[in-house]
Each structure stands twice: as C-alpha cells, then as structure tokens.
Amino acid sequence: MHRPMFAPACWGARRGAIVLSALGLCTGLAGCAGTGERLASMVTPYKVDVVQGNFISREQVQALQPGMGRQQVREILGTPLMVSLFHGDRWEYVFTLKRPDVPAQTRKLTVFFKDNMLDRVEGDEMPSEAEFVASLSSRRAQAKVPPLEATEAQLERFPKAKPASAAPAAPTPAPAASYPPLESRR
C-alpha cells in the first residue's frame, strides 16, 4: 500500500474520530432544537443608547440674542458639530439619540452670523431640559418594587441578636501635656 508522504500514519483514525464527533454534534443539536430556540430567545444582546451631537434645550435657544459675538454663542450652545469651510457665517448643531425599541430623536439648529455677530437662529422646536429628561425615563418600564416589610414568621427564621453587655469600657488615656519636638534642635 502506498501512502502519500504528507499524510501521517494515524490520519485515518483521526478522520474517523472527527467525522463521528461532527455527526454526534449535529445529532445532539437536532434533538435540542426546541431547547436551543428557547435559550436563544431568553438571551438577548445588550443594545446601547447612541447619543451624537449637542443637546440644545429651549432655554439655551431663548438665551440667544441678536448681536451676540461668536464666543458668547459658543458659551451658551457649546462647540458646533459642523462648521463649513464654504459657509463660515453659520454653525450647525445636530443632536441624535438612538435607543433600542424607540424611534430615533433628531434635532437640528442652525445659527447664522453677520459680521461675526449673531444674526438669526433657525431649526427644530427644542424641548425644555425637563421635557427631555422625562422622555428619557419614560422608555424604561417601571419595575414593581417588592414590599420591604417582613412578617413575624419570616423574622423567626433568623437568630436573635444578643444585646450588648453593659461592661464598662476602658478609660481612654488623657492626652500628653507636651509633645516631643518634630525636628531635632542643634
């Protein structure tokens, strides 16, 4: 019998073991199809909230006044998300919030300048800070808080604490009248 030089002598036994292992694995998975589907439906991936851009509140927009300088606008609204090289007289503020199982929120605000002074503001209706915070917490289902009271029968399962003995405590020593010097004197 002629064997190829690259095949080890035990290749036939290994190949048989690999085939049997694969066949056993497929058979086991086929038998557990219902269990696997239930397990897969119980395990869900963590979906992260994606926040991009600058949140601008109604209060911030109301604080803007025509004639403000660029630095004053930046102090109120923050650094703009987009500043165009071709349109140096406008700043774009875009805010996007994507959360699982909730429609994405997108808001845009454009600030226009004329001679480096605020000219006008255009954009979507911005929510107040309180409205925005309320919209964030409304998505989460309020879990039922269990009662934090125990009945007498439940408390009997635990050993009773022994009262602290009224043994006199050792008196604390009085502070020294004088302390040694911190540095040696020469």
Automatic annotation (TrEMBL):
Its main location: membrane. It is a lipid-anchor. Residues 161-186 have a biased composition (Low complexity). Residues 53-121 form the Outer membrane protein assembly factor BamE domain. Residues 136-186 are annotated as: Disordered. Keywords: Cell outer membrane, Lipoprotein, Membrane, Palmitate, Signal. It holds the Pfam family BamE. It is found in: Cell outer membrane. Part of the outer membrane protein assembly complex, which is involved in assembly and insertion of beta-barrel proteins into the outer membrane. Belongs to the BamE family. Part of the Bam complex. PANTHER family: OUTER MEMBRANE PROTEIN ASSEMBLY FACTOR BAME. HAMAP family: OM_assembly_BamE. This is Outer membrane protein assembly factor BamE.
